[in-house]
Structures are given as C-alpha cells and as structure tokens.
Amino acid sequence: MTHYYDSSNLKKIPELMQLAPEASASFLAFEKDVYQTLNHIPLKTKELIAVAIAHVTGCPYCIDAHVKKFKQLGGTREEILEAVFVATTTRAGAILSHATHALVAYDTTTTSQDDAQQNEPPDQPECFC
C-alpha cells in the first residue's frame, strides 16, 4: 500500500539536490556544522532535541532518522518520551500564550453596524494562514 509518508520517497533526495545544488550544499554544510563542528552540546543531546522538534514539526522521516541515531548513541525510550512531553508542553504553552492575542483582538473589535460598514473587507487577505 502506498501512503503519503513512504520511506522510499527519500530516494528522491538526490534529485532535489540536483535541482538546487547551491542551496543543497549550503544546507548540508550548515547541518554538518550544527551536528559535528559545534561541540557545546553532546551529540546524543542534539539528537534528542531533534527527536522532540521532529514531533513538533510532524515529520515522520525526521522522527525515524533521529530516533535511530539517538538509540545508537545510547538513548532510551524513556528519554524520548520525556523529550516529546517537553515538546508537547512547550507547544501547548505557546498556543495558550498566543490566546492572549485572541482576547486583545476580541476586546478591540467593535460590534456596531457603523464600524462594520466602515471596515469594508480589504482587497488582500489580512492573514495568509
């Protein structure tokens, strides 16, 4: 059965790199610097951070790759779950704190018909999400 996140899709990465060789080289150099050159954080910790972030971004390829690397470095299932919980609470906290924007928008929005008529819908959307 074929599904959207099929690991065989990763075989297309060389094709992507050929389509944008300079950008690909820049990315690979950046990744090498982060994982190999910068040494303030141990590699095992970097991989655990990557596992947590992969859950936030929702990338199954990254989850798979970084979990495998983390396990090879001696990481445990318990550490993974704790890191995912940290990411979960951080993401939930960010969503909750952004709710303050909803309250401000609500509090500063008028409901009179006059204001509604004066505020015609713009030609361009105010939000692109």
Task: Write up what this structure looks like.
With 129 residues, the protein is mainly α. 70% of the residues lie in helices and 0% in strands. The model has no long low-confidence stretch (mean pLDDT 91). The protein has helices at 13-19, 21-37, 43-57, 60-72, 77-108, 113-118.
Quick structural overview:
This protein is mostly helical and 129 residues long.
Structural class estimated from helices and strands: mainly alpha
Using the alpha-carbon principal axes, give the shape: extended
Low-pLDDT parts are none
Q: Write down the Rg.
A: 22 Å
Keywords:
mainly alpha, 129 residues, 6 helices
Mind sketching the topology for me?
Blueprint: H1 13-19, H2 21-37, H3 43-57, H4 60-72, H5 77-108, H6 113-118
Helix pairs in contact: 1-2, 3-4, 3-5
